Amino acid sequence: MESWADWDHVVKVDPDKRLVAGESYEDVAATGTDAIMVGGTTGMTEAKMERVIKACGTYDVPVYIEPSHSGAVVHSGALDGYLIPVVFNAGDVAWTTGVHKEWVRMDEEIDWTRTATEAYIVLNPESSVAEYTGANCALSPEDVAAYATVAERMFGQSIVYVEYSGTLGDPETVAAAGDALDEAVLFYGGGVGDYEAARTMGRHADVVVVGDLVHDEGVAAVEETVRGARGE
């Protein structure tokens, strides 16, 4: 069983952003989150990734890298694994297979035993990731459920990730994705900033992901979402 099958909550740390003044990655690791994911859409460099991975990897919380391009991939013993986004509703096919092919072509050090993919469904048209990938975000709950089924049944994905990036999504749409899945784990990310938002999305998704919150509001706010995701 993959480790994420038991997760409820993940903190996504963006190496291109700072933590709240006075807080450390030790504080982030102590929030009770199940894992730390390191990645971002823009501004990613190997040096920034290395700095954050080194800092997070010293604590007793699993650390995964989620690279936006091959140049941001770091091979480190501090990592528990690599989660590679595949944007299923991308308008630019580079984000379905193209950049992945280039990574494989250029990198001979990939540890396939620790590498998995995430079937992203991007739904906020105003987000950087939607613009970056040319995603078709005008999807009904039925469309999203169909993408989730395609991801699991046709492409064998063990993670389906509904991403609203920067705004709180539609619970009905998230629920439709969850209902469509059998064994795949449903991640939800976007706009989760408090207990109630985390509780709402945690009812429909297996794993609630918070990102900007740790950089904008800090660890106390993250701890609140951990409790919400778990329904505590």
Can you tell me about this structure?
With 232 residues, this protein is an alpha/beta fold. The chain has one domain (3-230): Alpha-Beta Barrel (TIM Barrel). Helix content is 34%, strand content 18%. It has 9 helices and 8 strands. It has helices spanning 25-29, 46-56, 98-106, 128-133, 141-154, 171-180, 195-202, 212-216, 219-230, and strands at 9-13, 35-38, 63-65, 81-87, 115-122, 159-163, 185-189, 207-210. An 8-stranded parallel beta barrel has the order 1-2-3-4-5-6-7-8, surrounded by 5 helices. Helix 5 packs parallel to helix 6 (171-180) and helix 7 (195-202) runs parallel beside helix 9. The longest helix has 14 residues, at 141-154. The model has no long low-confidence stretch (mean pLDDT 92).
List the helices and strands and how they pair.
Layout: E1 9-13, H1 25-29, E2 35-38, H2 46-56, E3 63-65, E4 81-87, H3 98-106, E5 115-122, H4 128-133, H5 141-154, E6 159-163, H6 171-180, E7 185-189, H7 195-202, E8 207-210, H8 212-216, H9 219-230
Parallel strand pairs: 1-2, 1-8, 2-3, 3-4, 4-5, 5-6, 6-7, 7-8
